[in-house]
C-alpha cells in the first residue's frame, strides 16, 4: 500500500542545511499495524508528516496505493489527506465550541464532493468508541481518554485507508492509554492500516511490527 524509496528531507535553518531523513526505504502493506520509534531527532516525526502528505520529501519516491505522491499538486494532496488518511494527535485538537458529534463531523467541511449518510456513520463511530451518551457534550466535559476516543472517531469518519497516530497516548494515564491502544488493536483486527509514532517502548510493543529510526534511516524493522 505504501512504498517509500530513498527518501530524504533536508531543512534550511538560518542558512544551514539540516538533514532529517537520509535515504530512507520503507514498505507498509494494507492492513498492517506498526509503531515507529526512535530518539528525539531520529526523523520519526518527519517520516509521519511525509506519510500523511503534510510535507514533501526533498528527494526520493513515495507511492501511496496507486498514486505517485511526488507528482500531485496541492489540491490533489489535500483531497488525498482528507479522504484517505486519518490523523490522531497527542493533543486531540477538538474544538471547544462544538459538541463531540460536531467535532467528529468536521472533516466534512473540507470535502470537495458530497458524502451521503455521514452523520449516521458518525453516530455509529461514537457508539463504537464508547461515547454514545456523550455526543452532545463539549470536549471540556470529557476526560482525556474520552477526548482521544472522539478524535479517533473523527479520524475514521471518511473511512480512510491509512490511520496515522502521533504520540496518541502522550497525554493519558497508563490505564486510559491501554484502553486507547486496545481500540487501535481492534481497528487493526477489522482491517484498518494503523501507523503509530511513539517514544514509549511499552506502547510500541503493543504493535505487531516495530520500526526503529536512527539518524534519518530505519535502524531496525521487526517486519518482513
Number of distinct helices:
7
- Helix amount: 25-40%
| Fourth-level CATH superfamily | P-loop containing nucleotide triphosphate hydrolases
Question: What portion of residues belong to β-strands?
Answer: 25-35%
Biggest sheet: strands, sense, closure? Answer: 6 strands, mixed
Report how far apart the termini are.
15 Å
**Within the CATH hierarchy, at the fold level, what is the topology?**
Rossmann fold
Mean pLDDT over the residues: 92
Q: Report the top-level CATH class.
A: Alpha Beta
Structural class: alpha/beta
Q: What order do the strands of the largest sheet run in, or round the barrel if closed? A: 6-7-8-3-9-10
- Low-confidence spans: none
The geometry reads as globular
Please state the CA-atom Rg, rounded to the nearest Å: 17 Å
| Total DSSP E strands | 10
Short account of what is shown:
With 224 residues, the protein is an alpha/beta fold. The protein is 30% helix and 29% strand. It has one domain: P-loop containing nucleotide triphosphate hydrolases (Rossmann fold, 3-Layer(aba) Sandwich), CATH 3.40.50.
Description:
The protein is of the alpha/beta class. It has a single domain (about 30-55, about 80-220), classed as Rossmann fold (3-Layer(aba) Sandwich), CATH 3.40.50.300. It contains seven helices and ten strands. The protein has helices at about 45-50, 75-85, 100-105, 120-130, 145-155, 175-190, 200-205, and strands spanning about 1-15, 15-30, 35-40, 60-65, 65-70, 85-90, 160-165, 195, 210-215, 215-220. The strands form two sheets. Strands 6-7-8-3-9-10 form a six-stranded mixed beta sheet, with helices on both faces. Strands 2-1-4-5 form a four-stranded antiparallel beta sheet, covered by helices on one side. α6 links the parallel β7 and β8. α4 (about 120-130) packs antiparallel against α5 (about 145-155) and α5 packs parallel to α6 (about 175-190). The protein is globular and about 50 Å long. The protein starts with a strand and ends with a strand.
Amino acid at each position: 500500500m505504501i512504498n517509500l524509496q530513498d527518501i530524504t528531507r533536508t531543512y534550511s535553518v538560518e542558512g544551514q542545511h539540516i538533514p532529517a531523513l537520509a535515504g530512507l526505504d520503507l514498505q507498509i502493506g494494507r492492513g498492517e499495524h506498526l509503531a515507529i520509534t526512535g530518539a528525539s531527532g531520529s526523523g520519526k516525526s518527519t517520516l509521519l508528516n511525509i506519510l500523511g502528505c503534510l510535507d514533501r520529501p526533498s528527494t526520493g519516491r513515495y507511492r501511496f496505493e496507486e498514486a505517485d505522491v511526488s507528482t500531485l499538486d496541492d489540491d490533489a494532496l489535500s483531497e488525498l489527506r482528507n479522504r484517505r488518511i486519518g490523523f490522531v494527535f497527542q493533543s486531540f485538537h477538538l474544538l471547544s465550541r462544538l459538541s463531540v458529534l460536531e467535532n467528529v463531523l468536521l472533516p466534512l467541511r473540507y470535502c470537495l464532493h458530497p458524502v451521503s449518510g455521514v452523520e449516521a456513520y458518525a453516530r455509529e463511530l461514537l457508539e463504537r468508541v464508547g461515547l454514545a451518551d456523550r455526543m452532545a457534550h463539549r470536549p471540556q466535559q470529557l476526560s482525556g481518554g474520552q477526548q482521544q476516543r472522539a478524535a479517533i472517531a473523527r479520524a475514521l469518519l471518511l473511512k480512510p485507508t491509512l490511520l496515522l497516530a502521533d504520540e496518541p497516548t502522550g497525554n493519558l494515564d497508563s490505564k486510559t492509554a491501554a484502553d486507547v491502544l486496545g481500540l487501535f488493536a481492534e481497528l487493526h483486527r477489522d482491517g484498518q492500516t494503523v501507523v503509530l509514532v511513539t517514544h514509549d517502548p511499552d506502547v510500541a510493543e503493543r504493535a505487531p511490527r516495530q520500526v526503529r529510526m536512527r539518524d534519518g534511516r530505519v535502524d531496525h524493522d521487526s517486519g518482513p
